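REQUEST
  id: r-88c1
  op: predict_structure
  target: Streptococcal pilin isopeptide linkage domain
  payload:
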Amino acid sequence: MSFTGGVATFTLKHGQSKTANGLPAGVSYTVEESDNSGYTVTKTNATGPIQTGSTATASFENYKGSSGGSGGSGGSSGGNGGGSSSHTPQPARVNLTATKTMDGLIPTGSGFTFFLDDANGQRLQVKNNQGGNITFDTLTFNKTGTYVYYLTEQTGNDKNINYDTASYKVTVTVTCPYDYAASVSYEKNGQAYNSVPAFANTTKQAAPAPTPTQTPSVVAPARPLDNVPKTEDSSNLALWGILAAASLLSLTVLLAGTKTRKVRFQGKEHQS
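RESPONSE
  id: r-88c1
  status: 200
  body:
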């Protein structure tokens, strides 16, 4: 895609897309569609700023229905919107979608639940993901005005999952130049968001294992302890018994010798 004077022109068929790379952050953009006469057009993120680290996605959905239109969330018809009196404006249609990831990957199954609420908190739709996609029922508008909705994910019961708590504000602006036309813009948690709403869940990390308690090391004494005989060692008990008997005999002999000396001393004193 090449720009001349800040403008790039290109042609797309149904289902095709075009990407502009290298646009500086902070630059504002506007995407317009031509040659859509006779179609009801829904524009999403057709204008906005280029945000750092994200991709702005502008989309156009053209719808050609039968004349007469149908009722919808926009209420009754708001008039011919400037067209001829014989023309009944076709209602605008908006298909809200979102994406789902689990740890950065597309989840299998449909185990996550999503809500579409109006500005008053009234729950309008409840949908489950189909793999990585969430698709809400078509909203139709046959009255000009501004309509606000909110997209959120239900916090589940799996304690091992961090559920995405983001709240996307969806603003639908409906005009009627000939048929009703809707323009959709998003905010994420109060900040402008120029892409498809995305809900990203992650797996909680396991708690770290507790650090084992270290047993203090035993310090050997400075000198070896005396060997104490074990009570069940009969040989040591006999040895200790012999030593005790010998000590008692020595004490008896010592006492006897002391008494004899005293008698002799007294005898000598008596003779003098």
